[in-house]
Structure formats: C-alpha cells, structure tokens
UniProtKB/TrEMBL annotation:
Name recorded for this polypeptide: Amidase
Membrane spanning stretches: none
PROSITE patterns xref list: AMIDASES (PS00571)
Top-rank EC class of the record's enzyme: hydrolase
Keywords per UniProt: Hydrolase
Residues in Amidase domain copies: 51-432
Pfam families documented for this protein: Amidase
NCBIfam families, sorted: PRK07056.1
Species whose genome carries this gene: Comamonas denitrificans
Organismal lineage: Bacteria, Pseudomonadati, Pseudomonadota, Betaproteobacteria, Burkholderiales
UniProt-recorded Gene Ontology molecular function terms: amidase activity
EC number(s) per entry: 3.5.1.4
Entry keyword Hydrolase: yes
Keyword Magnesium tagged: no
Length: 468
C-alpha cells in the first residue's frame, strides 16, 4: 500500500510504477461507489493526462481534485450551487490551480462542496452527500456519517483514493473539519500566503486556499507549491518546542471519544519528550460579544450574493441562504467596528501566546454526525425537517467552534489524525497566529510520527512515512 504521494513519487522515480498506472488507479477509484460521490465533474480530456508532465516536477503522476469554487479553464465554477450552473466555463485557471498544474499535477475533477462553502457539515441538497471514510486506516466507517465541510468532496476524493491531494478552501475550518472527520491531514496556511485570484469568495477577509493530503510531508509539498515558497525545516526534537493547551472554550463540551483521544494524544506527546503547558485564554470567551451584530462571513458573503439572491434566492440551499441573509441587516458601521474589534482581539491573543511555538486543541469537539440526523430536507421525510434543521445548526456550530478561532486570529493550523483503529476519525489541531506556518509543519512531522507509532503498536497495518 502506498501511504502518500511522496511515497508514490519515490516509486515513480525508481521505476516501480508509472504515471499512467498511478492515474489509472485513481480514475478507477473515482468511478467506484465511494469515489464517484466526491465529484460533480470528472475530467476526461487527454489535456490533463499526467504522462505529459516531466517526472522531475514535484506533482508529476499525482492526481489532484479541485473544489468547485476554483476556476479551471473549461469548467464551470458553480460552487456547489444551482444558481451558477448555467454560466460560461472559466477561461483561465485560478492562481492556485495554475500553480498545481505547473507542478505537474493531473486534475481529476471538480469536487462536491457545501453550496457557496457556507457550512462545516458537508451536506448539499443539490448533490448526493459523500460519506465520511477513515483514510488513515483505509476502511469504510460502516454507517453513513457526514464528511465535514465545506471541502467535503476534496476530503472524499483523497479518502477514497481517487486523488492524492484535494485543493480546497478554509474560511472557518473547511479544510480542517473534513480532515478530522476522514482521517486526513488538513493545513490552513496564513491566509495571505496563497493568492485567491480566480476563487469564488465566501469572506474576502477570512478565505484561505489550501489542501487536504494523506500526510504532513505531502502537506508541506502542497503548501510550498500553492504559496510559491519553501518552508524552513528543523530537526529539533519535541523537547525543544514550547507547546500549550488553551483550556478556555477549546476543551468545553467535548464528546467522550474526542476527550479520550485528545487526552491520549497529549500523553503520548509528553512521553515522547514534549513540554506542554495548560493555559487560560480568556480572549476566546469574548468572541460572542465581538460577533453580536454579525460576522465577517455573513457581511461579506451578503455583499457578493445580494444581486443573485434578488433573482435566484429560491434556488439556494435554505440553510445556506439563511446564513448569508444574516448579513443583510449589518450596517457599514457594524462592519467597520467588527474589523477594529478583530484587530484588537488579534493583538491581545498574540500577546498571550507569543512565548509558545504552537497550541494544541481537538480539531473538532465532536466526531462526525450521522447523515440521517442532519440531511437536507429533500433527502428524507419532510415531517422530520424541523428536527434535522435543528440538529444541523447544533452540529455546524460545534464542528466550526475550534477551527474558526484560527481564522478569526488570521492564523495558521494543521490538523493531523489522532484516532486508533476502530475509533471514528478525529483530529489533533496544532495552531498559532500569522506566519507561524513553518513551525507548525516541523512540529506536525514530529507529532504525526509519535501518534502513528502508537497506532501501529496497537496493531494497525500501515506503512509509516519517514521524516527528518
């Protein structure tokens, strides 16, 4: 079993497999029962064949999926909506897509997503919802759980084996939530590191273009391509890093499985030499007051969607429309005060956490909800709509709670799997403020190796990536 695309690239280099064989295997997975729900469009054009990419390119032979809010030349950028399906196809690639293509990537197709990227659950009434999988241990979860969103199809494509890298976006957790719920690695970079030209916006302030992968080393390669920069590598041991656990908000109301998994992960890191301090971060309790008149995502999405809502509002997912419409009643003064309050809050949080290299939290406080409990109204008995809508609102708020803190901070974060075989997937989130990306990657390599070693000791059969 090839563990990640770094291992695939090694096999391509030594002739143990070919790019054509690798692509064929991914295409077969894309047409499987589990794989096909990840996509709203599968590429068939030979213009995207990986055999045309020279093998020295970092993504030659690597299948990549693209979230449907990025422009791809010749594809319609519909962002998971009915409203945009009839618009003309894009004439150029988004910058993120162009950088992946220049690195040799094969574009497999356009992935399922929450309509206009405005939810962390992963459902969309316009398309069948892909089920969460456990990519870390290569198994179906049995029951149908939500994949997390909004980059639901990006996660499903990587978890099902039809892509090695899923290009997505993260405005409040849309990369890290599906990473946690599918046993994947999800990295949210400092927002300004990857250009957003050619990307349909949700929040111009908070949006980040980033990727889902199978390992931290793959995430490093993906980031270096997307951000057109090299990270500074370190081989310092865990004992050399200063780590903290914020007890405020992030550890509240954890599902028992998440609490147990997080406690176990921290204990394993400490056994491996990590020095971890628990701290209060009272600034997190101030977020509801900061948002009492609305959120940046609501204000900025409404500004973009107002003309479309006037003409096509009836074709929106009602759950998404409700969240966008929340921005209708925010005044310009509300919006400007929110930005100022955010800037002040960022300064306060950064001052409190500056002495640490990273903070550790559960990526999500719950595991994936069952799809039947939160499915869109069109999917099940309409008599149950109110109950499912209420369950959706609760699940969405919980799934976004921890991850959205980092977006509000204008920070960076890495979610790595921390579950054992037989458990529902869950993530450990390493995070900090802006421009701490390199430290998170170096720590992530160490944490990933530590947690995976324990899982292998528990009897799982999976090749462990080799790190510095």
């Amino acid at each position: 079993m090839i563990s990640d695309f770094t291992a695939l690239r090694a096999q391509l280099a030594n002739g143990r497999t070919s790019a054509a064989t690798a692509l064929s295997a991914c295409r077969a997975q894309a047409h499987s029962a589990a794989g096909k729900l990840a996509y709203t469009h599968l590429e068939t054009s030979e213009n995207h064949a990986c055999r045309s990419a020279p093998l020295h390119l970092p993504l030659a032979g690597v299948a990549v999926s693209v979230k449907a809010l990025f422009d791809v030349q010749g594809w319609v950028t519909h962002a998971g909506s009915k409203v945009l399906q009839a618009q003309p196809a894009a004439t150029t690639d988004a910058v993120a897509v162009a950088r992946l293509r220049a690195a040799g990537a094969t574009l497999m197709g356009q992935t399922h997503m929450v309509e206009f990227a405005f939810s962390g659950v992963g459902t969309n009434p316009h398309y069948p919802t892909p089920a969460a999988m456990d990519a870390l241990w290569g198994r179906d979860l049995g029951d149908v759980y939500v994949p997390g969103g909004s980059s639901s199809g990006a996660a499903a494509s990587v978890a099902s084996g039809s892509a090695w890298l899923g290009l997505g976006s993260d405005t409040g957790g849309s990369i890290r939530i599906p990473a946690a719920l599918n046993g994947l690695v999800g990295f949210k970079s400092t927002a300004n590191l990857v250009p957003l030209q050619g990307t349909l916006p949700l929040s111009s302030t908070l949006d980040t273009a980033c990727a889902l992968t199978r390992s931290v080393r793959d995430a490093i390669t993906a980031h270096e391509i997307l951000a057109a920069r090299r990270i500074t590598r370190s081989c310092a041991p865990l004992a050399a890093w200063r780590l903290a656990i914020p007890s405020t908000l992030m550890l509240s109301d954890l599902a028992p499985a998440i609490a147990a998994g997080f406690t176990r992960s921290i204990a394993l890191l400490r056994q491996a030499g990590a020095h971890i301090e628990e701290i209060a971060l009272p600034e997190l309790d101030a977020l509801p007051a900061i948002h009492r008149r609305g959120t940046l995502a609501a204000a900025e999405s409404f500004a973009w969607h107002e003309p479309l809502l006037a003409q096509h509002g009836h074709n929106y997912d009602p759950r998404v429309r409700q969240r966008i419409e929340a921005g209708r009643h925010m005044s310009a003064a509300d919006y400007l005060r929110l930005h100022q309050a955010r800037n002040d809050w960022i300064a306060q949080v950064n001052a409190r956490i500056a002495r640490f290299d990273a903070l550790l939290s559960p990526t999500t406080p719950i595991t994936a909800p069952l799809l039947a409990a939160v499915a869109p109204a069109s999917a099940l008995d309409p008599a149950q709509d109110a109950a499912r809508d209420a369950a959706f609102v609760t699940a969405n708020a919980l799934l976004l709670r921890n991850t959205s803190v980092v977006n509000m901070l204008d920070g960076c974060a890495l979610s790595i799997p921390c579950h054992l075989p037989g458990e529902l997937p869950m993530g450990l989130m390493l995070w900090h403020g802006a421009d701490r990306d390199d430290a998170l990657f170096n720590l992530g390599l160490l944490a990933e190796s530590t947690l995976l070693t324990e899982a292998l000791r528990q009897g799982a059969q999976r090749a462990q990536p080799l790190h510095c």
